[in-house]
Amino acid sequence: MSTEVRTHRVLARRARRHFLADATAPDAVAVAARLLGIQAQVTTAADQAVAVRGPAVTAVRDGLADGSLVRTWSVRGTLHVLDTARAPDLLALLAAARTWEKGSWQREFATADEIARLAELVGDLLVEGPLTRDELVAGLAPHVSDGLADRLASGWGTVLKPLAWQGLLVNGPPRGRRPTFTAPPWSTLPDPDEAAARVIPAYLDVYGPASPDTFDAWLLRGGTRRATLRRWFADLVAAGTITPVVTADGEPRYTRTEDVDELVADAPPPPDHLRFLPAFDTWVLGPGTRDADVLPPEHRGRVSRAAGWIAPVVVRSGRVVGTWSGRDVHDAELFDGGELPADLVDAEHERWLRITSDPPAGESGSP
To answer: 20 to 30 A Cα–Cα from 221, which one of 17, 229, 285, 354?
Structure first.
């Protein structure tokens, strides 16, 4: 019989691991490394997700400039800022799924042979330095079909994502408002099984306890082969690294073995805790918007909105209790229509004044 974990202990520990309670993060690399990336479809959201955890709002830009951070298509096919040292592990799991070889993907975007051809070509093109998308397409066009060249030049870069997942290109320094692509700072990706043995416990450290399905929804929207996913978790259980547990409603999940005692402790709830988090924050995206412990199901549509937008959220004692404008914490709209304690709101107001006092980096979509 699996051990039952206590929800308030889970959320309290998760807040600490997210740098949202007690100690703050020393720098952007610490945030990206622990949280397994910061979603960066919107540049200002990534800046704020790091800044709300302690570092300066310029920390992401500084990390990208010095190479300690890298920006590329990562989990769920979205742009993320990743810790450069940990990025190869994540990409190895994405590459192992070979989602671009599925028939539906090939019919809509490019054949597996076309992606293989691009993979052969892109390294030589990027060896001389960063290229804009137009420059990259111009270099590839003479060696591929006209139809593939057109697909490379249009849309949201979907045809380039498999190259990013295989660790063959990352974003380089922008030229004005135009993104660039460059060669990654690693030569190869690790073995997927070895990477999974590191990534899964790291995920459970900050987003667990979680089921294999929840992990895979975060990683690749359920794209990992089921047998592979089951084997990864089974191997970690056999090694004693992770342990099966159940929630209060009997849902089976897994947690790191070293965390079990803390999550089952019969201790009182921690003090009332309030945080205002930016759009696309990992507090919501890590466990997923379907996690009822974090976001009440009846209010999911107020957070997960049209066109994939994830609203800025108000989090109280670990649970999303409302949304806000992302500009003024006093514009919060609580799900229950109530009011928040003035002292807790004032503390968040001061935090966000610090964050928003720096000139914004500007917003950018997928390159």
So the answer is: 17
